[in-house]
Write a structure and sequence with these properties.
Layout lengths: L6 E4 L5 E2 L15 E4 L39 H7 L8 E6 L5 H14 L4 E5 L4 H10 L7 E5 L3 H11 L3 E5 L16 H18 L2 E7 L18 E7 L5 E9 L7 E7 L2 E4 L3 H5 L10 E8 L2 E13 L7 E4 L3 H15 L6 E7 L11 H13 L7 E3 L2 E2 L5 E2 L4 H10 L4 E5 L11 E5 L2 H9 L2
Parallel strand pairs: 4-8, 4-9, 5-6, 5-7, 7-8, 13-17, 15-16, 17-20, 20-21
Antiparallel strand pairs: 1-2, 1-3, 9-10, 10-11, 11-12, 13-14, 14-16, 18-19
Helix pairs in contact: 7-8, 8-10
This protein binds thymidine-5'-diphosphate and magnesium ion (MG).
The site of magnesium ion (MG) has 4 residues, from α2.
GO molecular function: ATP binding; ATP-dependent DNA damage sensor activity; damaged DNA binding; hydrolase activity; zinc ion binding
Keywords: ATP-binding, DNA damage, DNA repair, DNA-binding, Hydrolase, Metal-binding, Nucleotide-binding, Stress response, Zinc, Zinc-finger
Pfam family, one: AAA_25
């Protein structure tokens, strides 16, 4: 017969290359390309039933599609990220670094859904059932009606699921699954894709919700969760910083709810605890107002979250000053520095700049621009902002301040947490704010002039 053609597949993004190379053009990862045999095509399946795939007139489709029924886990932080609970037959990917707490979270979720009446199966490919049971006991979930299986053979797992017909199946992790009809090693892109494909197909066919756990990998020998993102309905990432106790579950894709929603947890000795008031948590270590420290009134998903930006500006001993940022985009920092110089006449040449979001939170909203600029200025001028004030607003390249979405929610949260003033763009819809002194500015230069007398 014909010699099998080999593919070179990036284990990070799944891009297929005609030959090996050290760096993937698709995603830029190094040493991520691995030789894999392609999926054997096999005989085409006969499709029966003329109705399947027949088109339906657009006008015949009901416009009032009922919202999907959902089961809540009563772990509010999880239910919110799922879009209001678990949808039957949905496929969910939960990605995250090894050791971040994925197994802990999903064991707790399995127990909660089981207590809410769902028939739940937890399949571990990484630990023996006895180990999982010990962890459950440690989490105080020893009596939860969750069934455990320690298995990596995909065919055996699918047979078991087909017999059990659970409402929820958790597969921990998809990288340990092994399909015996795929000719490459467990953890490779072909294997991970085959497992994800079979399991998501099972989910649709049988109405079982399937949660796939995927480890984020730095090196390319094991496929990362990104290669299955497009196969599932919902993609959640579990994030956290080393040395910080809290964890953020973030929806980056959700067919059944808003993306960008977050759930906040704290890793404790007894597993993950919900953090119902993230603002209080992220501001909890705040000392007395210090130069360089600014509270940003942000929105994460559907929820206002206050957090602290911290900047440090100091003369550089190097020929090339450092620009270092944690929790905020480095390109956006460069843009704000350029606007400060070009529009406000405040240069940062010869100065190292460090910017950090306290507590390890990651902020992606342009609405934080003004908070970043204020933190940089406050650090540079060694002048603290008025105490008990929050800041938000987007900065354009011209130096103008743009109003941002959900202004009222931001202000309401600030007021709730005891702040007394806010610095915001002109023309913001501030609503009725008797208790909050909202100062509005048209451009960055006006903020600089009033707060720092520059
Ligand atoms: P784990 O859920 O095994 O991570 P993952 O599945 O993402 O690899 O969690 C690993 C870490 O969590 C481990 O370092 C121990 C810690 N941990 C706690 O702090 N408290 C707990 O109750 C549990 C179960 C784990
Ligand atoms: Mg694990």
């Amino acid at each position: 017969g014909m010699a099998k053609k080999l593919n070179f597949i990036c284990q990070s993004c799944g891009a297929v290359h005609p030959r090996w190379s050290g760096r993937c053009d698709g995603c830029g990862a190094w040493n991520s390309i691995v030789e894999e045999a392609p999926l054997s095509a096999g005989p085409a399946k006969k499709t029966l039933g003329a109705q399947r795939g027949s088109p339906v007139a657009l006008t015949d489709l009901s416009t009032e599609e009922a919202p999907p029924p959902r089961t809540t886990s009563r772990i509010d932080e999880l239910d919110r990220v799922l879009g209001g609970g678990l949808v039957p037959g949905s496929a969910i990917l939960v990605g995250g670094d090894p050791g971040i707490g994925k197994s802990t979270l999903l064991l707790q979720a399995a127990a909660s859904f089981a207590k809410a009446g769902l028939n739940s199966v937890y399949v571990s490919g990484e630990e023996a059932s006895a180990q999982v049971r010990m962890r459950a006991q440690r989490l105080g979930l020893g009596d939860a009606p969750v069934r455990l299986a320690a298995e990596t053979n995909l065919r055996d797992i699918l047979t078991m699921l087909d017999t059990e017909r659970p409402d929820l199946a958790i597969i921990d992790s998809v990288q340990t699954m092994w399909a015996d009809n795929v000719d490459s090693s467990p953890g490779s892109v072909s294997q991970v894709r085959a497992a994800a494909h079979e399991l998501t197909t099972f989910a649709k066919k049988r109405g079982t919700s399937v949660i796939l756990v995927g480890h984020v990998t730095k090196e390319g020998q094991i496929a990362g969760p990104r290669v299955v993102e497009h196969m599932v309905d919902t993609v959640l990432y579990f994030e956290g910083e080393r040395g910080h106790q809290f964890r953020i579950l973030r929806a980056v894709k959700n067919r059944f709810g808003p993306a960008d929603e977050i759930g906040v947890f704290e890793m404790t000795g007894g597993g993950l605890a919900e953090v119902g008031n993230p603002s209080a948590l992220f501001l909890s270590d705040r000392e007395t107002p210090a130069p360089g420290s600014v509270v940003f009134a942000g929105i994460e998903g559907t929820r206002p979250v206050l957090c602290e930006f911290q900047a440090l500006v100091s003369p550089t001993p190097h020929s090339q000053p450092r620009r270092s940022t944690v929790g905020w985009d480095g390109g956006r920092l460069a843009m704000i520095l350029a606007v400060l110089e070009a529009r406000c006449g405040i240069p940062f040449t010869g100065l190292d700049v460090y910017l950090n979001v306290a507590g390890g939170l990651r902020i992606g909203e342009p609405a934080a621009d003004l908070a970043v600029a204020a933190a940089l200025l406050s650090a540079r001028e060694d002048t603290a902002l008025p105490p008990q004030s929050v800041v938000f607003g987007e900065i354009s390249l011209s130096g103008a301040l743009r109003p941002v979405g959900q202004t009222e929610n931001r202000l309401k949260e600030a007021q709730k947490l005891g702040f007394s003033s806010a610095i915001a763009p002109a023309r913001s819809k501030i609503g009725d704010r008797a208790e909050l002194d909202v100062r509005q500015y048209a451009d960055l230069a006006a903020v600089v002039g009033e707060l720092f007398g520059a």
